[in-house]
Amino acid sequence: IILRVCLATYSFDAAICAHGQECHAPSLADLFDRVIQQSSRVHGISSELHSDYEQYFFPSKNHIGKRKCHTYSILTPADKENAQRLGREELTEVILRLLGAWGDPLSQLHRSMTQDQNQDFNHYSSNKALEMSDMVHELRSGVTKVAEKMKLLGVISNALGYMSSPESLAPSSVSSSYERGDFNSIDHHDLLYCFRRDSNKVKNYLRILKCTTLPELDC
């Protein structure tokens, strides 16, 4: 059976159509698969850009010290076991908070890179930063749709507040830290390091959330 998405542009909740049959809305499992695939793409691009940036600007790695990512105030499970013990509502909120915290920093990173003097590399890297910014926005929208489906099915509570705007989910330090826009190469590198770390968390948490929500699937 050949399946196709019935919309011209990709959407996380686009209907699934079997050839010659009626289209049907995606199941919760379908939605999970779509956001997990997107999160894997985001993490792949972030890892690639971080690695390329490090090799281009800091091949000796002597500058690398202890970093404090702007998402440090978001409490996240330290490992798979802790994530599995966390309730579905709490893990969903952690994922949305992490994604909400990166909208503005990635946009600022893109703008800063376009103005940087290292044009040979930053033309490439700024395009990648913009792509990541767009993909994070899409991914957060997709995770929100997953949460809405979970609420509709009674899997999670209707009383939670994580469906609010990205700005309200981001740590309060984010806006003040990035409004100035006075980045340097080390700032760029640290942001990429932190985003690679957080995008990996989101990818892993989504997989765990799928398996704890739909235990009948082969995880």
UniProtKB/TrEMBL annotation:
Q: Which PROSITE patterns match?
A: SOMATOTROPIN_1 (PS00266), SOMATOTROPIN_2 (PS00338)
What InterPro entries does this protein's entry cite?
A: 4_helix_cytokine-like_core (IPR009079), Somatotropin/Prolactin (IPR001400), Somatotropin_CS (IPR018116)
Query: What compartments host this protein?
Result: Secreted
Which GO CC terms are listed, alphabetically?
extracellular space
Q: Which UniProt keywords apply?
A: Disulfide bond, Hormone, Secreted
| One GO term (biological process) | response to nutrient levels
| Molecular function as annotated in GO | hormone activity
The keyword Secreted is annotated on this UniProt entry:
yes
Put simply, this protein is called: Prolactin-like
Main localization of the protein described in the UniProt heading: secreted
- Read off the SUPFAM superfamilies from this record: 4-helical cytokines (SSF47266)
Entry's family note = Belongs to the somatotropin/prolactin family.
In the UniProt record, the gene name given for this protein reads LOC115360488
Report any Pfam family annotated for this entry.
Hormone_1
